[in-house]
Amino acid sequence: MARVLAAARYPLKSARGERLASVDLASDGLVGDRAWACVDAADGTLGSAKHPRRWARLLEVRAASGGPRSGAVLLEVAGRTVRAGSAEADAVLSEHMGREVRLTSTLPAGARLHRQLPDDPAMVPEWTPTASGTEVVNDLAAAKPGGRFTDYGAVHLLTTSALAQLARQLGRPAVDAERFRANLVLDLPADPLPGQELRIGQVVLRVSLPTPRCLVPALTPGEPQHLDRELLGVLAREHRTPVGTMGRAACFGVYADVIEPGQLAVGQPVQ
């Protein structure tokens, strides 16, 4: 039976997240997901592991809710636990990153982030008129005032069938779903198509687009200069697909919009 296999929330953009037994979805996505971001004090850009040399060390930080009543987000940084929004958290993160940064839960005007394009030109989306291997600065157009520092979709979905196919293509026993930072992993025999609706309890999701991939799935926490180039190569060769009317890109997973908000739980059936 099709069901929800796993649910995850990432309270701090590009940090590690938390696995959840149940989660509330609002109209713009998982409540508390990507609610905080790092800001580089030097140029005001937001932290994103899409530029590994600048921000890959965020993948060594774990962010989690402090509990349903507190509303706090707690960060584990180099063996210390600090609360997002505190001066202590800014100081500990700055020490960890090796330069001055601060946390924000408010979307700055004209929010932008640095992104490193993959060396393989097949990984670069057709709508990015820039040579592979270069750095670009993108507007964060999908981010929401008051939080939700998302790059595009409200909810990011993976399926067990897609993960199994990727593992076969790589000749590996399995591929860790956490590399792709999805909100939900669904035990489905195939990826749902754009326009299809999924009902999970009281929640209804509508698939919008395939998810274009960047360098992040190839990163390993603690090894910011090491890229799983084999993984990137398979994504480029085997998973390049049209993304709406924008052109083709190497995609894995799908984005979905929330049509009917509510709560869902791991183990619930998917219709």
Describe the secondary structure blueprint for this structure.
Elements: E1 3-9, E2 18-20, E3 22-26, E4 29-30, E5 37-40, H1 52-55, E6 62-65, E7 73-77, E8 80-83, H2 87-97, E9 101-104, E10 112-116, E11 135-139, E12 155-159, H3 160-170, E13 184-187, E14 197-200, E15 203-212, E16 219-220, E17 223-227, H4 229-238, E18 240-242, E19 248-260, E20 262-265
Parallel strand pairs: 12-13
Antiparallel strand pairs: 1-2, 1-13, 3-4, 3-20, 5-9, 6-7, 7-8, 10-11, 12-19, 14-15, 15-19, 16-17, 18-19
Key features of this structure:
about 270 residues, mainly beta, 4 helices, M1 Pyruvate Kinase, Domain 3, 3-stranded antiparallel beta sheet, 8-stranded mixed beta sheet
